[in-house]
From TrEMBL:
InterPro entries: MATE_fam (IPR002528), MATE_MdtK (IPR050222), MdtK-like (IPR048279). It comes from Massilia soli. The keyword Glycoprotein does not apply. This is Multidrug-efflux transporter. The keyword Transmembrane applies.
Length: 465
């Protein structure tokens, strides 16, 4: 086997190089995608406080469903990687065509659920005008969901062929388009209508359809897709195969939804502690999310590396690729933890000039530094398991970690309810919720590491028997 015939040093160096070459364009693409949301909030903030509130609230709902779509469509990475590793290129076009039907259906369902969620805006104490603007923002931006579902199907296809450059280039172009159209429509420049926050929704929804069109155009002309070109003929949906894809992808979507909704719930609970704590919490959370893009990109690359090795019938190389990927993520976790701990005050000052928010943010960033190691470990090990086509167990573990530990422990420490015998003497506020996050992520990392160790070793032993 490859992992045994080459020297350990050469094998490790080769695997690190291969994973990095696969992951860094996706990292740039992920950062560009995150940048679209940052641009929406930043540019709307210069219109009015009401518009900023509407966009922030609308984005908080829309982004949770968007993350669920990303997770559900991640099964495409696994399926195409396995077919690529097995050399069954003739089957990939059919998988992609069915994946596009799945993506469209998932996008339509997400669009409907997102619009349904706007009913909550009128029952959480929002000003009626803000609730109306937030609902309109969601109604408009959700029109891009079907395109996004199809785009993620092609995203999984191209990255599993080791072709990640289009993901990076199209995401950067999407960000530039988003910023330019925001400038036109949010502020009414060049004679365009002044739409405020709704202009952001128009830009993002339109951008999603254009990104899908750009990906289709790239696939039509790039030589790397010729052996697996999926657009040779029309194909109606095959429901049994789509159902099989959903059985693999829905647990990932639920996992992503659980994580995003848990962080969203914590943000709502922290809002009770006042402007200083909620502002500090959002800053620390935003910076942590940016840092998380690195191990997340490694994780997506790991699905391809592990899936291709298993498709080739080489579980030893799949195990080797898994642990090299975990090691790279953990190494980054150590570096990011040290950086956040050492420069937490500088990070806080870069976001705000309010001294009270800076002090609170610096405290929360210490907790963010603590969970870097476990966060990097849990996303890497979960991604490796998905490369093995194992998705339900990571879902169960992460549901337990976020909703079984992080939220309850955070509530008990943050609120210190008198009815609970082991609650702290005084409420810890936002810090209590962050301690809960550290605990939940650590539990997830430990259980997922054990699962990966057990599964990867078992597959190797089975191949030798």
């Amino acid at each position: 086997m490859q992992a045994n015939t080459a020297s350990p040093r050469h094998s490790a160096r080769s695997e690190v190089k291969a994973l990095w070459q696969l992951s860094w364009p996706m990292l740039v693409g992920q950062l560009a995608t995150v940048g679209m949301g940052v641009a929406d909030v930043a540019m709307t903030g210069h219109v009015s406080a009401g518009e900023l509130a509407a966009v922030s609230i609308g984005t908080s709902v829309w982004s949770i469903l968007l993350v669920a779509v990303i997770g559900t469509m991640m099964s495409m990475n696994t399926l195409v990687a396995h077919e690529t590793g097995a050399g069954q290129f003739e089957r990939i076009p059919h998988v992609v065509r069915q994946g596009l039907w799945k993506g469209f259906g998932v996008g339509v369902v997400a669009m409907l659920l997102t619009n349904l969620a706007t009913l909550l805006f009128y029952h959480i104490g929002l000003d009626r005008a803000v609730a109306d603007r937030a609902a309109l923002f969601v109604h408009v931006i959700s029109l891009g969901m079907p395109a996004f579902g199809c785009y993620r199907a092609l995203y999984g296809y191209t990255t599993s062929l080791n072709a990640t450059k289009p993901v990076m280039v199209i995401a950067i172009l999407g960000l530039l388009f988003n910023v330019f159209v925001n400038w036109l429509l949010v502020f009414g420049n060049w004679g365009m209508p002044r739409l405020g926050g709704i202009g952001c929704a128009v830009a993002t929804a339109t951008g999603m359809w254009l990104m899908l069109a750009a990906m289709i155009a790239w696939i039509r002309v790039a030589p790397v897709y010729r052996a697996t070109y999926p657009f040779t003929h029309w194909e109606w949906p095959h429901l049994p195969e789509i159902a099989s894809m959903l059985r693999l992808g829905v647990p990932i979507g639920i996992t992503y939804f659980a994580e995003a909704s848990a962080f969203g719930a914590i943000s709502l609970l922290v809002a009770r502690f006042g402007v200083v704590q909620v502002s500090a919490h959002q800053i620390a959370l935003n910076f942590s999310a940016l840092v998380f893009m690195v191990p997340l990109s490694f994780g997506i690359g790991m699905i391809t590396r592990v899936g291709q090795a298993l498709g080739q019938g080489d579980p030893a190389r799949a195990r080797f690729a898994s642990w090299i990927g975990v090691a790279m993520s953990v190494a980054f976790g150590v570096l990011s933890a040290a950086f956040i701990a050492l420069f937490r005050w500088e990070i806080a000052r870069a976001y705000t000039s309010d001294l009270a928010v800076q002090a609170m943010c610096a405290e929360l960033l210490l907790f963010a530094a603590l969970f870097q190691l476990s966060d990097a470990t849990q996303v890497a090990t979960a991604s490796a398991l998905r490369g093995y086509r194992v998705t339900r167990q990571p879902m169960q573990i992460q549901l337990l970690a976020f909703w079984g530990f992080s939220l309850p422990v955070g509530y008990l420490l943050g609120r210190a309810p008198s009815w609970f015998p082991w609650a702290p003497a005084a409420p810890m506020g936002a810090s209590g919720y962050w301690i809960g996050l550290v605990l939940g992520l650590t539990i997830a990392a430990a259980l997922l590491t054990w699962s990966l160790q057990h599964l990867s070793r078992e597959r190797v032993l089975q191949s030798r028997s």
